[in-house]
Amino acid sequence: MPGMSGARREALLEALDAYRAGALHDEEPISRFRTFLERADPFRRGDPDGHVTASAVVAHTSADRFLLVFHRKLDRWLQPGGHLEDGDPSVFDAALREAREETGLSDFSAPIGSAILDLDVHAIPAFDADPPHFHYDVRFLLTTGDGGKLADGAAWFPLAAVEPADSDGSLTRAVGKARARLL
Known about the structure:
Elements: H1 2-21, H2 27-36, E1 50-60, E2 65-71, E3 76-78, E4 81-83, H3 91-103, E5 118-124, E6 133-144, E7 154-158, H4 159-165, H5 170-182
Parallel strand pairs: 1-6
Antiparallel strand pairs: 1-2, 1-4, 2-3, 2-7, 5-6
């Protein structure tokens, strides 16, 4: 679906411009994203250099805890997220779908709409037939209450437990941005 990829790219470039205009950003990942988006299809999972992914920092409506999922391949707790699928009209829609699939919850609010909360570029190690590559992860902010049963591998983390579960500082940074937007 080359048309959808082009529309996603244009929407993401506009969202990057809006993110750049905000106060809570670092210029380096924005520049890196913009350069990567010049590729023929930056969303194509088979690209050996990497691809755009979507994730959601999910805060409880009280903003005192965050919903994380255990990523078996990486053996660590992360925000819900993953690869874009053909039917995802936007990166934000992919993040919302992933949050629903990975947490088992369906009732989410988006307190800052589809605005970007955080950007992260990180290396993914080789796994099975997939070579090592990079994820250009676009993170959005979602909130939810206590309704619903969590999926296996999903758990609420109080704010004080997020940093110890974070192996590279990117989750702590994103949660800090989420708290600043919610309080």
